[in-house]
Design a protein that fits this description.
mainly beta; 8-stranded antiparallel sheet; 6-stranded antiparallel sheet; 1 helix
Length: about 800
Amino acid sequence: MIRKLSFKHYLLLLLAVFSMGAANAQSTTINTTYSPVPGGSVVPFPLGSPNTFLTFRVTNNNTYAVQVTDVSHLHINSADITQGSTTLVTGYSMNNAKYSLWYTSTNVTGNPNISVANGWRKAGDYGPVNTTANIVTTVMSNAEGFVPPGATVRFALAITDTIVAVGPNPTPSNFTSAGVTLDVSGGYWGEMPNSGISQGFALNGSITFKPGVPRPDVTVSPSTICIGTNTILVAKGASYINAPTYRWYRNGVQISTNDTLFINNAQVADAGAYKVIVIDSNKRFSDSATAFVDVKNPKPPTYTGKTQYCLNEPFEALNIIGTNPKWYYVQTGGSPIPLTPSFNTTTPNNFTYYISQTVNGCESAERTKVYYSAAPKPPVPSATTPIYYCENNPADQLVANGENLRWYYDEVGGVPSSIAPIPGTTVKDSLDFYVTQTVDGCASDRKRIDVIVTFRPNGLILPSDREICAGDSISIGYYGSAFPGSAYNWSLPTGSNNITGIDQGPLRLNLDTPGLHKVTLQVGNIGCYSKLYEESILVKPIPTATILAKEELCLGQSDLITLNSYTQTIDTFTWDWAGGQTTHFATDQGPFGVYWTTPGEKVISITVTDKECKATIRDTVMVHPKPDATIKAYVRTVGERNSNYASSFTKDFTAGSKVCFGDSLKLEPATINASSNYTWTPTRFFEENNKIPATYARVDFKGYVKLRVEDQIGCFNEDSIMVDTKSCCDMEFPTAFSPNNDGKNDVFRPISLANYDVKTFRVLNRYGQTIFESRDIYRGWDGTLNGEPQDLNTYFYFISFKCNGEYVEKKGEVILVR
């Protein structure tokens, strides 16, 4: 960036001159570089105006032309533009601007007024140009600005932005090198295309020259020709080119080395671009100049009308579509027929003519063939009719037998087609088609083919539900456009039962098998069938479960009831215990503790639900009553002297009664069942006899005597009685007895019921003789001695026994009575 420099400045000229050899003159360049010097100033001009330019002059003192090709210039990316101490523009940028180079050899002094009308020509365009810094950069490349030998040419560098330059009064104002003079003084600035202002500003950059040869001028006479005619192409190099030679090229291939190129009997392939270069005596060659040759070849005419006739048909002239038609007997060459020809249809014959047209003075090289023929009318072609289709069924292409078939949609008129039509079947309809055959150019009458499109029913299946549980029923029906009397072909799932309903339905059926089942239906109408309609019905399985319970249960006894197996996805479990009561449970599936308070057959059930499908599972149990465990107890009657121990227990034991300590009770259940088990407690009272139904208990202490009865099913019952004890050490005896075998008081023994530990029991006569002795007080004396009855008399007894841990003796008298 260049800022705050004095308005005056000068330019430092760096000149590099390279020798110019004749063998490779086109590569020799003259490069002039300008650089601002401290103290100068950089300004835009005119300030803020787009499309500006600056000028310079080039004088060529050589015997050959030189070409200005490349130009570089100071390009501002971002800078403050100053004039002296004044900042004119802040943050100025020339980026995205485009450059162009103009030149003239007639308007080399004064106000340039750059325009084509004033003799200016454009040497080239370049850009857009962008830089990242304020630098001198190429703004024009490969331009074509030529300076002839001994001539002065003024150049103008133009930009679509505001151009930036250095000035005024550049020093030196011009230079001469290698025969080229560059004049930078008296340059003009301005805004295109307006007049410029004379200022001392000049380029801040470089200009590249090289020896060059300008393109030759080319003329084509004439440039537009008719096919088969001639034209001439002439190349002319600049007058100052020494000993010029030429080379013509066509599609990259050299075709001539003359300045003149002749094209005779031009054909379509001769049309297009021709390129030519000029070469001077030093083997310098120009860029190519291009000339174009346009060879006009109109298309042949077309026609409409009849050319093939049946015998005796009236001839009709053709309608020729073209300009200035000419008739010929031959395809090429020959002379035109003076009059438009006609054709005789009265006899079988044929004839061929050819027609051309002339457009803008050029006659078409190609001619249109016209073939006339006359022949007998052939019979109509054979074809099947009528043809039947169902609505929307694919139709086949119509078929007929004949030569050169032509198809029509109308009985008369219409445009024929060589392609057999395909009938449309989208709606019910009756269609007519026509076909002819042509033999020797004569068309037959039209054969009619009838196509009948029959109605096809449509519709859908309407199910009452698309998801049901196994065993449920479903209703299905048809809804659609079928006519009365149509046929309905239902396909129902395997396993459907209880089917009712016919035709379009509704049909009602049960579905027992779980799974996805398909119902299909096809409706027929006079041979036309609908598409196969399909509906899917999801049959969800019924949940299953198995109740695990004993078949025989006991009244009042809790037993476990549970599900042995069940569908794992079941949502809910609802039990019905048929009057039973639950004591506990683990989960909804069980086990449950259940008991009943009434006997009899009980039907228990559980309702399970899985995805809205329910099932009720039932099981039957028999609740048996408890076995009878009522205790019957007997005590021995006081004074009983029977010798049978068991028969001595004749008195019912009553609650609250007391028995002698160590005495016995006779116990038995009210009802005895041989298949039941009986258990008496406490075991001490019964020793080994506590597992029989009827038994004896020796009461050694106060307490409950209990009975547990369990039948063969496992039902059990219990009963108990309270037995209280008393001390019975005072043993009582009868004062008399009568051993006469009448079953009453036949034996002498103690009356007490206590179970004493007797040491001795003796009976003595009046002489002191012992006539009976025993330790079993229940045995007693029967009134005999050695089997002989004793006399009526008074006898004496003595007994010694242990009672409550002490030995007791007792004696007395008893009278034997007969």
